[in-house]
């Protein structure tokens, strides 16, 4: 039983439409797929409608947030599953994050233009069918000939962390995020916690505090984790009695990992489903 609990569609920065994504998931032999677009549930209806027979869809979202550690803010992603998408407090926060993301993408385009690197904002908007992110700005930069590849755009010379045209997101802190997910009946899994190649990561102390604040699981098997990072996370999950998941973080052809590249064990999946009260998986 192949279970992949982290994927993105065109509702955020993935390249497959939600119907294409669920059709590809079935073709790849998955039994369960979670759609976890950044800060939105907008793709879930279309995905459910197109769900092939035999495939189970887990409704979710990947929430952008931060944690304050000393005098610095570290950006985190928390996967929220099986929450009530209509619960107003959490829905309002997702909408706020999306609004800030659009403002911030526009600001990056302005900074680029002010330095003589014109990128058309209209083009960024056209590339983003839902939640706007740096991948859309990066794609517009490639089209405008500023950089040869999306990867180059994500470097420290451009819109990568610490880069001159990078603008941070305004997002809720992790404590509020975990409380919102719980209050909406959902379960939470810390996405790619030790993915050091993405930037600064938190230490085990923060994960221990997150567990005390209601975190349910850790995404251990993720393409951005090496063997050592996975071992340390698995040990931490055992200590803190957290569920461990594995997922591809599929974005379509823009990233190397295919659907089902990393997978979650059936008992871990079932533990998440029985803990959640806000929604149930959708059977095709
Ligand atoms: P944002 O949330 O708008 O700051 O953008 C972060 C998103 O960009 C995440 O979904 C990452 O998966 C994606 N991302 C990060 N680095 C790269 C890269 N080198 N190439 C393509 N996508 C990337
Ligand atoms: Zn993404
Ligand atoms: Fe993420
Ligand atoms: Fe993701």
How would you explain this protein's 3D organization?
This protein has 284 residues and is an alpha/beta fold. 38% of the residues lie in helices and 16% in strands. It has helices at 18-27, 44-49, 88-114, 121-127, 134-143, 150-153, 174-183, 204-212, 227-240, 266-275; strands at 3-4, 32-35, 56-69, 72-81, 187-190, 217-221, 243-246, 282-283. The mean pLDDT is 97. The site of adenosine monophosphate has 10 residues, from helix 5 and helix 6.
In short:
This protein has 284 residues and is α/β, with parallel strands linked by helices.
List the defining traits of the structure above.
284 residues, alpha/beta, TIM Barrel, 10 helices, 8 strands, binds adenosine monophosphate, binds zinc ion, binds fe (iii) ion
Q: What structural class results from the helix and strand content?
A: alpha/beta
**Main sheet makeup:** 8 strands, mixed
The geometry reads as globular
| Ligands, deduplicated | adenosine monophosphate, zinc ion, fe (iii) ion
User: In terms of quaternary structure, what is this?
Assistant: single chain
Contiguous runs where pLDDT drops below 50 for at least 5 residues: none
Write out the CATH superfamily name. Metal-dependent hydrolases
Number of strands: 8
- Mean pLDDT, all residues: 97
Distance between the termini: 15 Å
* Strand coverage percent: 15-25%
- The topology string of helices and strands comes to EHEHEEHHHHHEHEHEHE
How many H/I helical runs? 10
CATH architecture: Alpha-Beta Barrel
Evaluate the radius of gyration.
Answer: 18 Å
CATH class type: Alpha Beta
How many domain units? 1
Helix fraction bin: 25-40%
Q: Might you state the CATH topology name?
A: TIM Barrel
